[in-house]
Protein 1
Amino acid sequence: MIPWDSVTRVCLEAADFPVSDDLYIFTSLRLESWLVPIEADGGQELLSGLIRRGLFDASLAITAARAHEGMFCWPSLDEPGTDTGG
């Protein structure tokens, strides 16, 4: 289990049907991200929990859901002081 307060960035990688979209969860616990396919058991609930806790932006999630492909990160990769080490 990943503690909510250890999450430093979340990226949602949109993929075209039939491939699952993926969540990459970066934490202060390790350099590597945790990969969770949205289609995995609990994937949608995890994304909802991240949004509720302000760890992923709701409007960005909608943008990602409409996209055929791309990487959508919160906070954005351009924000200073949010390096994930990878």
Protein 2
Amino acid sequence: MIATFVVITGAVTYFGWFYESANSEKPSNNLVDPSASKVGSNAKSGSGDVISSAAVSALPSKIDSKGTIKQIIALRKQSSFRDTVKIAESVSLLDERIKKMNNAAATTAWQETFSCVSEGCGDKIYIKLVDTIAVADSNDKNNKVLHSVVETYTLWDGRNTLESFKSIDATNKMIKELNQPSINIIWDDIVQCNGKCASFSDKTITLIERVVG
């Protein structure tokens, strides 16, 4: 009887060792990448970290300055026609885009714009907003031209000071480098105007529109 007990004990020990050995050689499903494990734990906890990370990565890496500037010009036209529905659509779209930029200058210029858009903002308000968008996306070559155009517009008061002369020269060189006849025509018209004509602001916005494309 003692012999039988020894045999049974030995068998149990053997099979126990065999089971542990087999499991130790089998790849564990629990061995996952630490970052994946972290994502899983966040997803279960409902912390919102996973959703936030996905939302951030989904945002465009580059500012759509071209589309935003075109929308600003469209808003100016809609405001002049007092088209309430179109104004509302443009304001909503621009507000969303400018918030995503997270740019203090653009936010301030935008607040100034939408506060007067229903009654009709002056052209200087729209031009200022365009400039803040252009400066925020300075990697775009055309935006550097736009900033120079706005600077020249601001300084060009018909008195031709040293600063305005330098700005006119810089803008002229940038415009000529674009080598686009339609843009050159508008620019030459502005030069003839010399900051004194009544349509100076309107001509400048037309130039901005042409440069944006």
Protein 3
Amino acid sequence: MTIDEVNAQFDQLQAAFAKAATDASTYVTDLKAQVAAGVPITQAQLDALGSNLGTLTTAVATFDINNTEPAVVPVVIPPAAAARKR
């Protein structure tokens, strides 16, 4: 894989996340407007929001290569033994 391919995938990831965040924000805004209009929110609407936010959170956590694996502790190689002086 080349750096250009990695950069392209990163751009796609950022765009997908930005869209998902915008969609979630719009959905919450729509729910608030619905309540303000006197129309109750259904359990199905809350379940859909919770499910989609949970899926997004899981996807981000799964992708996060910095946090999904245990920390790697490099093996410290001791310096070579010093030559004995007489």
